[in-house]
Prior knowledge:
2 strands; mainly alpha; two-stranded antiparallel ribbon; single chain
Amino acid sequence: MRQLFIVVLCFAAIGLIVGYALFGRVGGEYIGLAELLSPPRGLFDEVSQQLRGVSHARRNVLLAGGIGAVAGVVFFGIRRR
């Protein structure tokens, strides 16, 4: 069970890194990690992030991390056979 957790964590981290490299760029610049990982603080901040595309980039980066975690589970399952 511990090995599964480690493999999933590693694949999720790799997925987040790849997702950030692919989708973390908005307006020609990479978004700061603090801004990318923290939720909006209010209505004005939420609207601002949606207009700039930060919320879209955040969703894609987190989806890439989730896909990496699922890939880790699949990899672990294949390796156990």
